[in-house]
Amino acid sequence: MEMEAHVEPNYMKVFWWLLALTLFEVAIIYAHIPRLFLVVALVLTAIIKALLVAINFMHLRFERWTLIAVTILPLLLIVDLLLGILPDIAKIPF
Amino acid sequence: MEQTIVMSHPEESLEVMGAPRGKVGMWLFLASDAVTFGVLLAAYGAMRLGSSDWPVPSSILNIPLTALNTFILICSSVTMVKALSAIRHGDVKGLRKFILATAAGGATFLGIQAFEWTRLIAHDGLRLRNNLFCATFFSLTGFHGFHVFCGVVYLLVIYFRAGMGDFTAERNMRVEVAGLYWHFVDLVWILVFTFVYLL
Description:
The structure holds two protein chains of two kinds.
Chain A: E1 3-8, H1 11-30, H2 35-57, H3 65-90
Helix pairs in contact in A: 1-2
Chain B: E1 3-8, E2 15-16, E3 19-20, H1 21-50, H2 57-60, H3 63-88, H4 92-123, H5 132-163, H6 173-198
Antiparallel strand pairs in B: 2-3
């Protein structure tokens, strides 16, 4: 029988971070800040929150590299898709 | 507070890529599901950037209510990891308690989403075919809501199987796999909430 040991993440600490970042997101949409800063702040915050869930709650940091590769490969496909449609989006002024 | 735990898993003796089969299977499913959500979000982005009169979401959607829903889903992720931690310490009662709390969180999320949809459809007259905003909003939140519904059913199956003594401190991989699905649903909502509601 194979035995594995790892340190369990501090789940409550992750929870408080997720809550704080969510409150930050809601607060800044009501603040009068330039649109570009708002978009960058929201996207970065969402990425940080998603990583917090994947790394801690989904225990990705304890997984073998093969499993991590399985999760990263589809993300590369999504990036490829975005790059594919970027020329169409970029033509449109906004 | 961090504590060291020991995982032992006889039912995971059959391994693929150095990990239990069930876990690899769920990761592969989540990877394909991530592409589906990614395509939906990319299509949403393309349509939104291509539209000159896209409405400000906060002027139509109830942001505080959806923020509360996000909070509920985050809480349910915490109860899910607590459930796994409980069974890894041999606490079946704790597992059932936290799994039920997680399912209740998911059901509450769906209830609030149903309330939001009802208000948007019946009161504000929004329909899937009205415009691109409505089409992408209902598609993305509906597809995610369907995932939450499946997750609640999945968790209830785990709850009843726990009651039949299917899980122990040594045999709990299926709880972990259910947790992976649930956290993925939470992760996707974090992105949907930001891109569809806040941006």
